[in-house]
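Supplementary Methods, section 5.1.

A reviewer requested that the exact input to the structure prediction be made available. We therefore reproduce it here, unchanged from the version used in the analyses.
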Amino acid sequence: SSQCRSVWYFDPHLIYDSPSCPYQPDQRFINAASESWFVHRPGFDDASHRVVGHYSRSCDGRTVDVPVYVANIANRAVQAFWRRYLDTQARAWRYVLVDDAGATLVNQMYGPGGGFCVGMNLQSWCTSTEEFANDAALLHAQGSFARAMRRTHGTPVQMFVNGDAGLATASRQYIGFVRENYIVDAGVFRTTMYARTLSAMATIQNAGDRVVILDTGDSPAGSADQIAQRLVTTAIVWLGFRPNLTVVWPDLEYNTMNLAVWPEDGVYPTRPLESMRSSAADIAVAPGIWRREFASCYLDGRAVGGCAAVLNANANGVVVRRAWLRRRYAHALVLDGGDALHGGSLSRGFFKAGRSVVPGGRALLLLQ
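The structure derived from this sequence is encoded token-by-token as follows.
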């Protein structure tokens, strides 16, 4: 289908472990690297002073400490290594998803174990390294790295970034940004991030870039907890939706091997009555409450009338006021079961403005 695009994942920044015990850092990179391929603490260029994170893994009945190194993406040899990697592994893939990418030193040199500059300050945050004196130097290197990622025939590689949206200024090859665990993190609702995420969606999409909403959870398929997570995720997507610029990637069933195609993703909202011009404030109807309505919505290609999303970041449930809505809605969308390939489905439940409640931290999706 013309609507499908293939995306290859890779992480050129943090050199993690191999996929199985003994969990050594990526041996392909390590075997090819010279010491200049790594980032070091200021004033040093030797292996004992690399910027490094640490995390623990269970291996053959014992706990092992695995180092996490940071690649010097400004190094042309490092750029060539990853360019060859993509040419070998991802030649047929339309896009690339770059993980762990930061526009600031603090963000880039942070990961397992916290900040990677142990002993430099109380938080171990990196504010300078031998290779990157400041944030501007790192941002310049991110642009240089992006420009070096080209196909064999010379076409620039277009990349989504799981990381800092500040990279949009580094190169136009960074075409989209993942908001991972900003809304639901391992099943926990991050209500204080709702407004920030919506505002970030407005800013990123105003620049013509894409936003990918990635939430995670491991609640049983079709459970009340999982359904609440799915409703909130979908509400965020509807509230900030712009055609061709908004992507939903809910990983709310990662404790299974199912291909989770959620039935609610078959609802397509069009002809918005309200939109965010600059921030979440544009669609706020009360403190911690946002709503957006659409004049024409479709379910699996069939017209179903108007639809709307109402999101509540407050701790307590709130009655949906009639004054918040331009149109009348008779139904709330009800999710039944898990993903569509394993019996999940949609139905219409009761809704009445002035009586129906949107629970604290949760969302309602409305249908006419």
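The radius of gyration is 23 Å. These observations are discussed further in the main text.
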